Amino acid sequence: MPTKETKTRAVRLPNVVEALLPIVVMMGLMIYGLNFSGETYVDAHMPLAVSIVVACIVGCVCGHSFSDMLAGMIDRLNATMEAILILCTVGLLVASFLMSGTIPALIYYGLNLLTPQLFLPVGCILCAIVGLACGSSWTATATMGIAMLGIGAGLGIPAPITAGMAISGAYVGDKFSPLSDTTNLAAAVSETGLFDHVTAMVSTTAPTFILALIGYAILGVATSSGSYDPTVAKEIQIVLADGFNINPFLLVPILVVIAACVMKLPGLVGIAISVGTGVIFAVIFQGVGSLADLFDMLHYGYGFGVDTDFPELVAEAAAALNVSPDSYLTVSSLLNRGGMDHTMWTINLILLAVAYGGALERCGCTEALFGKLKNKINSVGSLIFTTMLTSLFCDATMCDQFLGIGVPAPLYVEKYDEMGLGRNMMSRTLEDCGTLWAAMFPWTGCGAYQQGVFGMSPFVYFPFAFVNLLNPIYAAITAFLGRNIFWADGSYTNLFGKTKAGKPAGAPAEAHEKALKALEARRAAGKAPKISA
Cβ atoms within 10 A of the Cβ of 117, count? Predict the structure, then answer.
């Protein structure tokens, strides 16, 4: 019998037009939905679904089989599955902290302790502490961030400013935490030490954090000077005290979250313990006695007070407490959230976004668009800028911060060695943009999650997320000025242009030797600073 000859299809990189096609389709459909659909459809789900189809077609045209494209999508989904499971449990965490009274207690006591002038900088520091302990910006915003929204509302601070402040603090803590997934990923793809990476991040994140705190202090004074009405804060406390048994013990679940992270328990285990603590406190302090009620709130979210779709019921409930309907609605809008079911919109979007990013990665769109660019880089500043530009491109078009970190690394790693730079210089740069600006777009996993937490588009809160906004700009400017640079021999050029000796960052032995020789040659040619005496 005649045998069939198996033909091997030649796989090639897409050309520029092919590489841009799925990206243009996705962005075009997003722009249409946000601006020209008459608000009939404004979500990112369907544009991503269509763009996945287009990316698969491009991949097949370039020689990939559909099975190969599907494998690329599944690989990315597998890599982010833990984050998706954590997102499910974060919905449970929020619900448990609401029904236990923990978040209401944070709001209640926060209104007593914080003033309008100090709220923003102090709140940013508190969110950073929680983010550092948890190693998760998501957990920090879902707990402390929601509480800050309530406190800010009582102090007369606009919600977008409060959300931006909470985002800034949460991401600072996340970046500095050795428990953070993005922190570990950036160090891993750069093949450097975790604490070498964290040390390098201090050089950009610490100054921008200080600038952000100054900005929040100024903004707090400006926004509170004429808008603060102490009766609003008092009325919010009255509504909270009527709906919950408020006492200091309700703050214990927050300490449990922090303790679980300090003990370095796996994220899912730590959140599960925290959820269990919240449920126990709901039974003990809030009198939730039915298992069906507990399951209902954990699944569908906590429901506070009367149905706000009926103004007459809101007015009646407010009158019974002798507060304004607006104060009652403020508390209701803050506390009617959480639950596993309420995270499904975000999970659906993340699944589509990650699958889309995996399809783009598999067919080589980023390599086709940026692969040749690295040959034109001839300075440290341009290398840093190009790396961040690629990270931003991956965030915006591949919809996943993990791709914003993971995709640029193999593209530019040899260039960092050729420039005589430390591997922690690359890891820092990947996080400066890939992590921080991922929360800017409503169609990325991070942006969609934070939109669900704060109830507003990232385009609304991001201008006030000062750390996220300023960090990449600060890193790029200082690099172009020849400052704030970590070299392969461990030396560091500070903001004043002085280069001090230090301990080399971790790197593969062969790559490290190559980088040291390149640094020596660049110093001999006057293209890199010598160590100061």
Answer: 18
